[in-house]
Design brief:
It contains two helices and nine strands. The strands form two sheets. Strands 2-8-7-6-5 form a five-stranded antiparallel β-sheet. Strands 1-9-3-4 form a four-stranded antiparallel β-sheet.
Length: 170
C-alpha cells in the first residue's frame, strides 16, 4: 500500500468520528430556556382583588327590609383614584360594564340569570356590589333582597367561588 492511502484512511476515520459525534448531538438534543419570558398584560394593572370559595349572606334582625348582606374587610388600596384613572370591574371573569366609579368607591348592580336543564330562566337575581376604599381598609359589600335570591347566590358562589377584581386601565 502506498503512503497516501494511509493518509486517506486516517482522514476517512476522522471524518466518520466527526459525523458520528454530530449525529449523536442531533439525536440526543435537549430543550433549554435561556432567560425568562415575561407574559403579562401591559395594558392593565390590578388594583383590588378579592377571592373566596364561598359567600354567606346574613340578615340583620333590626333591619325592617328583606335585605341580605355579605361584608368583607380587605387590605387597603393605596393609589385608587376613580376621578383621574380608568378602571374596570371583573366578577368571575365577566367584565361589569355598568359600574359607577367615584373618587374612593365603586358601586355596581349585577343581574345573574339561573337556568334549568332545558335552557329556560328559572330565577333572575339582582345583586349590588359596593367597594369602598377607606384610609385603613377596603370594604366590600354584596347585597340582595329575598331569601330565595340568597339561596341561589350562595349556591352559585359555593359552586364557582367568587373572584372580584378591579383593574386599572393604563
Amino acid at each position: 500500500m502506498k503512503w497516501y492511502w494511509y493518509i486517506i484512511c486516517v482522514i476517512l476515520v476522522l471524518l466518520g468520528v466527526f459525523c458520528g459525534i454530530q449525529l449523536y448531538k442531533e439525536v440526543k438534543a435537549e430543550s433549554y430556556v435561556n432567560g425568562s419570558i415575561d407574559i403579562s398584560n401591559k395594558f392593565s394593572q390590578e388594583s383590588f382583588k378579592y377571592t373566596n370559595t364561598s359567600v354567606v349572606f346574613y340578615h340583620d334582625i333590626y333591619d325592617e327590609t328583606d335585605t341580605y348582606i355579605f361584608e368583607a374587610d380587605c387590605l387597603k388600596v393605596d393609589d385608587f383614584n376613580g376621578l383621574t384613572n380608568t378602571y374596570q370591574v371583573v366578577l368571575n371573569d365577566y367584565i361589569l360594564l355598568e359600574s359607577e366609579i367615584n373618587a374612593g368607591s365603586i358601586f355596581t348592580n349585577v343581574n345573574l340569570d339561573f337556568y334549568d336543564t332545558y335552557g329556560e330562566i328559572i330565577k333572575s337575581v339582582d345583586m349590588q356590589i359596593s367597594i369602598k376604599f377607606l384610609s385603613d381598609k377596603t370594604q366590600l359589600t354584596l347585597a340582595t333582597t329575598g331569601n330565595e335570591n340568597v339561596s341561589f347566590l350562595e349556591q352559585y358562589f359555593s359552586n364557582n367561588g367568587i373572584r372580584l377584581y378591579v383593574n386599572e386601565i393604563l
